[in-house]
Amino acid sequence: MDIKSIIENALNIPVIELSDPILSPCATWYQLYQESELSGNGTVTEESETYDIDIWCNTREDSELYAGLLKASLLNTKYITYPALTFSFDTNGKMWRANFNFKHIKED
């Protein structure tokens, strides 16, 4: 799954590395973990990857606008769970952050 392309195509803003300086508006993403679902006999039946996407903006209104656009794009992507969305203000960076958390169910 190419998260960076999904973000760039939906929002047309830079997608930066986590270690890069944050210049609004921009987005960051990272994979939190991978997990496997096991059946009763111990065989793997399904694998999933959990992702976080952060959209960084100067105003809450901008973060809500970009979040709406990205949410629509994610909902049109196959094999992902409904994304959980939260908004917060980062006091260190003095920016608003829209945060998505979702799972991508890997195809067999």
Describe this structure in words.
- By secondary structure, the protein is an alpha+beta fold.
- It has one domain (3-105): 2-Layer Sandwich (STM4215-like).
- It has 2 helices and 4 strands.
- The chain has helices spanning 3-11, 60-75, and strands spanning 26-38, 44-57, 84-90, 95-105.
- A 4-stranded antiparallel beta sheet has the order 1-2-4-3, covered by helices on one side.
- Helix 1 (3-11) packs across helix 2.
- It is elongated.
- The mean pLDDT is 91.
How far apart the termini lie comes to: 14 Å
Whole-number radius of gyration?
15 Å
Estimate the global geometry from the Cα principal axes.
Answer: elongated
Strand content: 35-45%
Total beta strand runs? 4
User: Which spans of ≥5 residues are poorly predicted at pLDDT below 50?
Assistant: none
**CATH architecture classification name:** 2-Layer Sandwich
Total domain count: 1
Average pLDDT, all residues: 91
Widest β-sheet, arrangement of strands = 1-2-4-3
CATH top level label: Alpha Beta
Question: Structural class from helices and strands?
Answer: alpha+beta
Helix proportion range? 10-25%
Largest sheet: 4 strands, antiparallel
Set down the secondary structure blueprint.
Blueprint: H1 3-11, E1 26-38, E2 44-57, H2 60-75, E3 84-90, E4 95-105
Antiparallel strand pairs: 1-2, 2-4, 3-4
